[in-house]
Amino acid sequence: MTIAYPAQFESDVVLRTGRTLRIRPIRPGDSEQLLRFYADLSPASLHARFFDMPSPERAAESSPADVDYVHEFGAIAELKDKIVGVAHYFASKQHPDVAEVAFAIADEAQGCGTGTKLLETLVAAARDHGIARFRAEVLSGNQKMLDVFLSMGFEVTSRSAEGTMHLSFPIAATREAEQLAAQRSQTAAYASMRPIFAPRSIAVIGASKRPGQLGREIVRNLRGTGFRGALYVVNPNATEIDGVRAYPSLATIGESIELAIIAVPADLVETALDDCIAGGVSAVVVISAGFAETGEEGRRREQALVEKVRNAGIRMVGPNCMGVINADPAIQLHGTFAPAFPPSGNVAMSSQSGALGLAVLDYARSLNIGFSTFISVGNKADVSGNDLIQYWAEDPKTDVILLYLESFGNPKKFGEIARRVGKTKPIVAVKAGRSAAGAKAASSHTGALATSDAVVDDLFRQAGIIRTGTLEEMFDVAALLANQPLPKGRRVAILTNAGGPGILAADACEGNGLQLAPLSDDTTNALRAFLPAAASVGNPIDMIASATADQYSRGLDILLADPSVDAVVVIYIPVLPTDAANVAAAIARPSQKTLLATFMSAYGVTSSLAPVPAFPFPERAVNALALATRYAEWRERPAGEIVAFDDIDREVLRAVVDVSCERGGNWLHPLEVSGMLRAAGIAAPTTVFATSSDHAMDAAASLGFPVALKAYGPALLHKSDVHGVRLNLRDEYSVVVAYEELAHALGKQMTGAIVQPMIAGGVEMMIGATWQPSFGHVIACGAGGTLVELLGDVAFRVHPLTDTDADDLIAQTRCSRLLHGFRGASPSDVAALKETILRLSALLEICPEIREVDINPLKVLEHGVSAIDVRIRVEPVAAVTPSRRVSY
User: How far from the centroid of its chain's Cα atoms is residue 321's Cα?
Assistant: First the structure.
């Protein structure tokens, strides 16, 4: 059995050195390249692969380029269009679930992760074809190759014999293997971004003497902030630019250049990039505009840049960007043409809109926010948020990550990375484009409900990302996160010298799901001991207008010491302008609890409050606190596990989908749907498909009354819209009449009917899934029935789901209260609902060709569930267009 070339395994990968290379399945046309590869291989590497010194021809015969991609699979690693690594697996007909693996890596590609990336590719391909175990024979002295196998996180067993090690290990996914892969990914991302954020040398290509010219402004900024590395300028028509010597070309500099900043007209960028590649540059920032943002021709030019940097193994920021900033005093990189340079701090920011991002740097200064790094990603042709988040996860100077997003590159991967990184560093994001104006019409309930922004909202919730509606809100919460410990709970104390703002803060707490802390008797007595009689020592604590700096200090000490208080909001309205500075000094302090201040109309003193963030109005302070509190709660929750179901019949599921795809796909027949539900272990009532009234009558009699009769036809997607459902039919006569009425009313639209026993009781829910180009499979859960779209009570998560995701998905819906017994009703089987959602996720993993699933209603009973009405649409997966987006 031979299958078509599996393009899905083509990828540009980042190695632990930060360089990229191309991994792809081997092709018959690679034979000559393989011969050259083995001819160039060093004697030591040749011996490590074959245990002797074969000729290049004999070596190539042992690594065939013509494989079936099922029992035999080969993958090669390419750099600059040259093979630098090759790996194969071979499974025998006698033991098709076990494969032997072998690797050969060129000397220049050893020790940097090439073998690991090839092994990851073999593992992914083998899993797709039922191979469960790999075996390998390695020379005992080949420590590099032994380390590749031992560092994957699989349970490797070994035995030694005559100078070789015989290794064997299962390749099923494990938690340890996933964690190690994530760590490798993060390490590689940090290494690949390091030349961008912390270059040892920079060349600015395109700077001129013309005032205001972008390249010149970049040079001026780099000099003005005191960039700590070496700085060069490339301009064949000048000898110096702004005091920096200019060279006619990169090659004439004669020194190693880590980062090139290109600021030339769009039609000259390719030539400049070629010079950078020839000169061994590690990374480039393309400031120049005129690419994908301008139309089809620009997109072609941009893709050409991507192909060049990929083939060269380097990284690129942009094009159409404003550059990069690193405010670390040890680096002082101001690689933009904007005048603003932020104070050094612990906040990192990426912005798709460069101008907008740079404009807010000055605003952030007013909130006492300092930056570690800032980057304008522009068109994100190469470097994207996924790279940056992983870099910042490793960056010791960064504690808070801010993102301004206009689009996603790979939302599924973005969610996986953000979920992992968010467990240690908060990620705050503004996603522009909340409007659903561009949402496509969808034929299923799930598709209609899964508008892009609704999915973004829940993707962020799933990944623990703090989503804010505005940039102002983003910087409010950033000011808190950058300067204060996370809240340990929802209990808030409010300390004020004016009743009105205290009430506003209390209202904001309630509106945001926070609680006013119940102060202990010791706390209220301590407050009463020094406050005037007119003061209120309840919560909010109103110290009245005469409150002094000393009273603020003492009151704050008492509240922070109360174990029932998790956070304190301090509000001050200045009575005398001279008092504000004293009060600010009394409040400013490090604290083990979250502390925020609202200084209303007290201009000029907020900087002296540091490290306490200051807000102009109490509502903004409380909103920031609420966002931080929800994030803190998410961080404490376990990530959960992806559940494996041993009873799912993969072969049956694949058979149904494969047959459907062979006929072009579309909505499955009810009997196909019924078979898939059984194979997936999803409970449903017995379904009989009837093509006549007599057939329906016999089916009803065998099932037992009462029954439901539902019209079926390929075009009858929403049966209730055409009155195509008859319920509670209690005898044979009723079934016959109902069938004939439906057949008469619907005519040729109806090709038969579904007969099912009635399922009494339970809560009607809806679960489903839809495939979206931007997100992949999105799973939905919400209130079921015919009004599902009108009610809009639905939540989403991006596949695959963990058990924790399923819990959150259910709990997020308003109707979940019904499941726990509402107004005296018996509780429903929430555990069975959760299991059904997880089985749906497993079904999508096995059958990615599924494009829509609607289970509506899914009745959640006292014991178990029943999928009453189910539709599944399948589409052949289009041939994969190899992407040049990097993977880790």
Answer: 23
